[in-house]
């Protein structure tokens, strides 16, 4: 899950700090998600969507990339 978050962030040209500020979490939390120390919550996925952190991606697409792909 963390790898997918990192890929989405980098694909969108964002730093950890930029993403953290956009969704109102700490830089450390983003780093923990990306490194697999913490699991990303549904609430955080919704924050990413609501704040258009990755442009105008649909909520379902963000969820699929960050959550569902890890089970395939």
UniProtKB/TrEMBL annotation:
It comes from the Bacteria. CDD domains: HTH_XRE. Pfam families: HTH_3. Signal peptide: none annotated. One of its GO terms (molecular function) is DNA binding. Gene3D superfamilies: lambda repressor-like DNA-binding domains. SMART domains: HTH_XRE (SM00530). Residues 5-48 form the HTH cro/C1-type domain. This is Helix-turn-helix. It comes from Salibacterium qingdaonense.
């Amino acid at each position: 899950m963390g790898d997918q978050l990192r890929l989405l962030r980098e694909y969108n040209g964002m730093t950890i700090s930029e993403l953290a500020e956009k969704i109102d979490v700490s830089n450390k939390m983003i780093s923990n998600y990306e490194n697999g120390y913490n699991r990303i919550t549904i609430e955080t996925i919704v924050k990413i969507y609501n704040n258009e952190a990755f442009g105008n991606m649909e909520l379902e697409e963000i969820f699929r990339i960050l959550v569902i792909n890890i089970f395939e």
